[in-house]
Amino acid sequence: MSEGKSDTGTARVSGTTRVVGILGEPINHTLSPRMHNAAFAELGLDYVYVPFRATKQTLREAIKSIRTMGVVGFNVTVPFKEDCLRLLERTSDTARAIGAVNTIYLSDGRLVGENTDAPGFHQALLAHGFRPRGKRVLVIGAGGSARAVVHSLVATGAADIVIANRTAAKARKLARQLGGEAANIRTADLEILDDFDFLATRQLVVNSTSVGLGGGAFLDYDADSTPDDCVHFDLAYAEGPTPFLKLAEKAERPTIDGRHMLVHQGALAFKLFTGRKAPVEVMAKAIGIASR
Ligand code: ATR
Description:
With 292 residues, the protein is α/β, with parallel strands linked by helices. 33% of the residues lie in helices and 18% in strands. The chain contains 10 helices and 12 strands. The strands form 2 sheets. Strands 2-1-3-5-6-4 form a 6-stranded mixed β-sheet, sandwiched between helices. The structure holds 2'-monophosphoadenosine-5'-diphosphate. 2'-monophosphoadenosine-5'-diphosphate (ATR) binds at residues 141-146, 165-167, 170, 208-211, 219.
């Protein structure tokens, strides 16, 4: 066994171990510690990754622990991604455009906020052989995660992005903020989800809603109307296929679940925390998916 590596797949903690954390509420179900600790162990790095439950009131102090306690950095998850933006000394263009931060680290003595969700989404598509440039896409939902997806699709040259959302005003606001028609973004209501003529033109459908994850059915969506090779990407993941991906699987369309985006955003964050290239295959395996 090499230095810092343990046979349990987690880093050995000693007096020299450096700490990376994830801030969220709730945080019990996060897969990130499993993924990052497996990566630290693989590379023999003397780091440990742990979950921290923050609150809106303690978020500022939690971030300061990078200075006061030498924490290396944090990933940030629901519901703090937007709040972090104004608590940092520098933020990347991507984080500002999306309006959310998912990774905080120290660079040249400054607290920096980055968003690796958008490039993580792109990497997950590339890993499945899908290049967004010139493609026609449907994004279902217009919340925080849709924002990162649409930003990525615009940045990587998608030809036609339609955002379909229950609340039309939210879809319109998102479209406007990310460039509107000049950026090839249009909006629609949910009735478009069973419009054959429209769906037949799509090459990628992304679900950014959590509809059906609590047990019920997904929306009235007709996967059979999409082309045979239309990729279906659910940002969420669950034990087994999500309700959205079940529809796609039934129609025999290619699918990607949210763990693929999780692993790629994590790999990009890992590089910012450690300066080392992430062992993506090991991280993927640690959260139960095949490496791609
Ligand atoms: P996230 O940060 O994960 O994107 P969110 O910001 O709460 O979560 O967004 C959830 C998305 O799921 C929204 O687009 C929401 O639609 P509204 O804007 O109309 O609220 C969508 N959503 C949630 N429940 C839904 C339901 N039962 N039917 C249709 N859309 C739903």
